[in-house]
Amino acid sequence: MPITTGRYGGGRPRARRERLAHRWGWLRHSVSVLLTRPGRLAPEDTGVGYTIYREWGHWTVRPVAGWRSHRWITPPTHATRSVPDHDSACEWAADLLGVPH
After folding, report:
1. In angstroms, rounded to a whole number, what is the distance separating the alpha carbons of residues 13 and 15?
2. CB burial class (10 A; 0-12, 13-18, 19+) of residue 93?
3. Of 7, 20, 38, 59, which residue is least crowded by CB atoms under 10 Å?
4. Mean pLDDT of all residues in 25-53
5. Model pTM?
6. Residue (of 92, 84, 89, 41) closest to 65 by Cα position
7. What are the beta bridge partners of residue 59?
8. Burial annotation 35-74 (CB, 10 A radius, 16+ → b, else e)
């Protein structure tokens, strides 16, 4: 006699429903991020500046607003792996953008 009885994994139709629910959830989340992004900025920020992010092992410079600001879709404006920490990355970005520091 087997130790356990029953099916594991839920069967094919259930897996398909879960996959579809996951995709719809991802789509809802992505649309909500796109619609609420301007509201997340600080009131004194006009959206014309740049931000520094750590992405995939390198420092990147992206604009605050616009199509290049979306990390999962577009490549960064500028990127480097030669900068070790955040302070050095800020100096690198300031030199790159021509901002006095």
Report:
1. 5
2. buried
3. 7
4. 72
5. 0.49
6. 41
7. 54, 80
8. eeeeeeeeeeeeeeebebeeeeeebbbbebeeebbeeeee
